[in-house]
Predict the 3D structure of the following.
Amino acid sequence: MGRLIVIGIVVLLVVWLLRRALAGPRAAGKSPEQAGELKGDLVACAHCGVNLPRLEARSAGGRFYCSEEHWRLGPRDG
Ligand SMILES: [Zn+2]
């Protein structure tokens, strides 16, 4: 009886560790909400004004752009 309880606890521990190991990479990559938190705040494209995560934006001269095309075109108002 006591051994069954110990085996049960060990199984629960292994399942918990596996779920933690599987959840780690997902939290860093695929969940939009959690990825947004990890990537920090949003920035606006200086050309078209669309919001995107700072790490996905191209930056030049303290401004951010949503794509290479808008990065080449530069700020719309400048
Ligand atoms: Zn843009």
User: Anything to note?
Assistant: The CA atoms of residues 16 and 33 lie 23 Å apart. The chain has a mean pLDDT of 83. The two ends are 77 Å apart (CA to CA). The chain has three helices and four strands.
